[in-house]
Amino acid sequence: PKKEKSTTDKLASRKGGSENKETDIVTEDEIDSEQDQAETPVEEISTGSGLTCASSPDPVQCNALQEIYRATNGDGWNNKDGWDMSDPSWNPDFCTWEGIECENINGKFFVSRLALAKNGLKGSLPDVFGGLRRLKHLKLSANKGLAGELPPSLGLIEPLQSLNVEKCGLSGELLNSAAFSSSLSLVRLSDNSFSGPVPSDAIAAMVRQHLEKGTTVQIDFSGNIGMFGSVLAEEDKELCGLLYVSVGETKIENPCETADSEGSAEVVKDDQT
Fold it and tell me: How confident is the prediction for the chain on average, in pLDDT?
């Protein structure tokens, strides 16, 4: 039988602890407002433990996560520790579930990282990411069974810093996608089936967002053979100094590419995303 995690284990899994960065401090009203605005499923599924997301520290986040689980064939995941509501030992505290790290903001716990790479996810991602308003890192890479387009609600996550969905089966055009938050500094979309013009306006917005910090924006479009266009418009080429883009095996033009461009940017390794 599955052993329920102890209180110590739960606290250890909440990687954010109680330390808040200045930019993460929000008021109680702002937190409540975010939850009111989030469009997430409210259906309560019967569970082996008799508990539901209504018993969770935050039902909005719990429901959003459970919708992701159901939409991507959660029963067939390689590791679904903590996610399966039919398990008699199911714990509604989502901070203890596989692939989730939480952060303590003003005494409330929020999902800050969701990492389910190589976990056998299949199907389309549901448009429920508005319920995870404090998510900073999303890593779903190497799930070949993931199909469809990027959910527009990804663009509602203002703190989102990294998005890694490389080596999946995702498709669709990105030009008018609402999935890109300007707060992103690392985007990995390689080896999917995305097509159409490159979202140059969204890329420029990302770089401008990070100008003051001097943070390099890194984007990988490689392996999406149906994508074309220019990474940046002519009037935005002055932003090249803070942009690293990989466009191999695409029809994308990269005006920022120089002989030493690959060596000038500090490329973030996979285990950091």
Answer: 84
